[in-house]
Specification:
about 190 residues; mainly alpha; Rna Polymerase Sigma Factor, Chain: A; Arc Repressor Mutant, subunit A
């Protein structure tokens, strides 16, 4: 019977092809689902059947028709899985590569333009936070960290005790930490 169906299909007998499809479709779908999801299984089975019809004149079936069809489903399934694996592998590689290049390019440590923007924005935040300190805290802070004066010099200049200067500086640092965060205050103290 298999040889007769193949012979009729080779002669473009659409009825023989429909018979082949009706007889083996369910078996092909079940087999394709072993490797793929339902949607992909259906696509693969349809591709196999279309290929059979398109290549009907040169169709070379040595064994049974079902063995030929299942082998075709298997080969297409393996090819699809391999393509997906390659796609995921390269997609993952390029996604990681792009993220890596972006992080390097956009990092203020590696890009002067970004660093200037970042430093400029950071400087604005710091200047704003310092300007919003209470006047005595701001004065003590600037004298200590901008002018690099010693506590005794600041006390003499401000007309207060050294402990008052220390309290004002500590209060300024606490207020700046609240406004900017701990890391930014450390950066500020180092960069001033």
């Amino acid at each position: 019977m298999d040889a007769e169906i193949i012979a009729r299909i080779r002669q473009s007998d659409r009825g023989a092809f429909d018979q082949l499809c009706n007889e083996y479709y369910d078996a092909m779908m079940s087999y394709a689902r072993l490797f793929n999801g339902a949607h992909d299984a259906e696509d693969i089975v349809q591709e196999v059947l279309v290929s059979v019809w398109e290549n009907r004149r040169t169709l070379d079936v040595d064994s049974s028709v079902i063995a030929y069809l299942l082998r075709s489903v298997y080969n297409r399934s393996v090819n699809l899985l391999a393509r997906r694996h390659r796609h995921e592998k390269y997609s993952s590689y390029y996604r990681n590569r792009i993220e890596s290049l972006t992080s390097v390019y956009c990092s203020p440590d590696y890009n002067d333009t970004i660093r200037n923007i970042y430093d400029g924005e950071l400087r604005k935040k710091m200047d704003f936070a310092i300007e919003n300190l209470p006047p005595r805290c701001r004065e003590a802070f600037r004298l200590r960290f901008v002018s690099r004066m010693k506590r005794a010099e600041i006390a003499a200049r401000m007309g207060v005790s050294e402990s008052t200067v220390a309290n004002q500086i500590n209060k300024a640092i606490k207020l700046l930490r609240d406004a900017l965060g701990k890391v930014l205050v450390l950066f500020l103290l180092v960069s001033i």
